[in-house]
Design goal:
Largest interface: A-B, 42 and 42 residues
Distance between the termini of chain A: 18 Å
Order of helices and strands of chain B: EHEEEEHEEE
Strand order of the largest sheet of chain B: 2-3-4-1-5-8-7-6
Largest sheet of chain B: 8 strands, mixed
Shape of chain B: globular
CATH topology of chain B: 2,3-Dihydroxybiphenyl 1,2-Dioxygenase, domain 1
Low-confidence stretches of chain B: none
Shape of chain A: globular
CATH superfamily of chain A: 2,3-Dihydroxybiphenyl 1,2-Dioxygenase, domain 1
Helix content of chain A: 10-25%
Oligomer: heterodimer
Strand content of chain A: 35-45%
Strand content of chain B: 35-45%
Structural class of chain B: alpha+beta
CATH architecture of chain A: Roll
CATH architecture of chain B: Roll
Number of strands of chain B: 8
Mean pLDDT of chain B: 90
Number of helices of chain A: 3
Number of helices of chain B: 2
CATH class of chain B: Alpha Beta
Radius of gyration of chain B: 16 Å
Order of helices and strands of chain A: EHEEEHEHEE
Low-confidence stretches of chain A: none
Chain lengths: 131, 142
């Protein structure tokens, strides 16, 4: 497995609109209107702000269930997830599982590594098309 | 280019109680090459650096980790690269942020300033490379 690039950093916030407005007004970042929104399956809404060759993903929990809500409950706001681009997410998942990692099945080019396998760091593997 | 002249995420800091073990986990299993290890001058904190694209992963831990302790890590903070750190600090202070004066960074020739408030719970700093004259010793990068 070869990690290629930091795709994005996930940041849990209490209020998505306020957080992105702050980063836009004060730091000059811009929300990508083509991505983000509500993700009912994950109980979140999110927005992406590109910077360099990566993005900041701001994530607000919409329910009190799931890992994002749990993070918000325990730690409030802060960095939640590191997303790493790989060439082949299926092969990366297979590789990590062979090493004993707990990794979810790939879905739409994305797989989540259990933090229990990475000393507590939430890792996401992502395969980008045509990048 | 952004309002503070940020060009990219320069560093993402992964803090732990044993940076060598965490860096080795990332190297061995994720194929992330560790390019440099060092002790932070002054504190002795053990640091390991890797680079993925234009982003540096900094693994930070205590000088003498307890080898018997369960290794725990967390995403801790972020450093944005800026073109003009003095201007960026002045802008943020003008917006009411508590920002330290720029000071020499671990990276040769670089200045760093810490943004101490208003970043949505993310410890946050700014760095400008080639801000002060320096010689480039072998193995100094990143």
């Amino acid at each position: 497995m070869k990690a290629k690039r930091i795709d994005h950093v996930g940041i849990v916030v209490k209020n998505l609109e306020e957080a992105t407005a702050t980063y836009a007004r004060n730091f000059g970042l811009t929300v990508d209107p083509a991505r983000g929104g509500e993700v009912p399956a994950l109980g979140i809404k999110n927005a992406f702000m590109p910077i360099g060759e990566s993005d900041l993903e701001f994530i607000q929990p919409l329910t009190d269930q799931g890992p994002v809500a749990q993070f918000a409950k325990e730690r409030g706001e802060g960095q939640f997830l590191l997303s790493i681009e790989v060439d082949d997410v299926a092969a990366a998942v297979e590789h990590l599982r062979s090493l004993g990692f707990r990794v979810g099945d790939p879905n739409n080019g994305v797989a989540f590594v259990s933090p229990k396998s990475s000393h507590g760091v939430n890792l996401q593997l992502i395969q980008r098309q045509g990048r | 280019m952004t309002g503070i002249g940020a060009t990219h995420i320069d560093h993402i800091v992964i803090s732990s109680n044993n940076s060598e073990v965490v860096a080795e986990t990332f190297r061995r299993n994720l194929g992330i090459e560790i390019r440099r290890t060092m002790s932070r001058p002054g504190t002795g904190a053990r640091l390991a650096f890797a680079k993925l694209g234009d982003v540096i992963l900094e693994f930070a831990g205590p000088p003498e980790p307890d080898p018997a302790a369960e290794v725990k890590a967390r995403l801790w903070g972020m450093v944005l690269a800026v073109a003009d750190i003095a201007a960026a600090v002045e802008r943020l202070r003008g917006l009411g942020y508590d920002v330290t004066d720029p000071r020499p960074a671990v990276q040769p020739g670089a200045l760093i300033a810490t943004v101490k408030s208003g970043t949505g719970g993310v410890p946050f700093a700014l760095i400008q490379y080639n801000a002060i004259p320096h010689e480039s010793p072998a193995g100094a990068a990143p």
